[in-house]
């Protein structure tokens, strides 16, 4: 069995939000919108566009973590109000909540990422946490968002820390898929994922550093465009085609363990992944030179590659105090 989950429409271009209302109302004219406070401000052109096409919508601000309680709360808020779609605006946590809420309401979801920090805008998966930010498992979804509107001007204006996080979360896809390909006769879904993740690595090796350095500029460079495509589309595509066999994802398992330590609470998903990727590469048995080269790439993006950079040195020092 092969299962394919991917958005029906994905658009990645500057200023797409200014005409996003027309795209969204092809799906629905009555919307529940959920987004972070900062994200909603960044997506102001989309709200103006929805007003222009006279769409009916209600906005609810998201804060915190994607927990089962948060999902249930939004489902309760939306029930019986006749919404026809759920729109998520923000980073991975907000988008993960929206996808789960839409599925429980049996409605299509529309995602509007405002940071290029993960592939959450694309994937058919909600990553769950508890109220303290500790990993609480994964919620597979029946389908990906119906529409993804990735405005590269908005993404490029976000703090570059999120971009670096997304780059790390994309690099790791190759490591986590390649170990699942036992030979050239591995299942086709595995081979597709490996080749897609390899393409993402090639794009990042060529453009990621340039995109990182160009963040905050008024012009959306080709390097940023390609890098954001790799983070949202290619990384999302890696998991879009799956067979019946489970896959090893060691770096993400390490990430989930790191969330159990309060010292990592203020670090981003991709920042924990960056360190976990180094550990994964060592356990994978990659050549020492390759690991050093990978660490160098991540270091240039100001990503943590040691426990000390994740804050564990301070924790150990505090534990030693009398």
Automatic annotation (TrEMBL):
Enzyme Commission (EC) number: 1.1.1.6
Signal sequence segment: none
Pfam family, one: Fe-ADH
Key words, A-Z: Metal-binding, Oxidoreductase
Protein name (Swiss-Prot/TrEMBL): Glycerol dehydrogenase
GO molecular function, one term: glycerol dehydrogenase (NAD+) activity
Organism: Paenibacillus favisporus
Metal-binding in keyword set: yes
Annotated Gene3D superfamilies: 3.40.50.1970, Dehydroquinate synthase-like - alpha domain
Enzyme class label: oxidoreductase
Coiled-coil annotated residue ranges, if any: none
Organism phylogeny: Bacteria, Bacillati, Bacillota, Bacilli, Bacillales
SUPFAM superfamilies assigned: Dehydroquinate synthase-like
UniProt domain Alcohol dehydrogenase iron-type/glycerol dehydrogenase GldA: residue ranges: 7-152
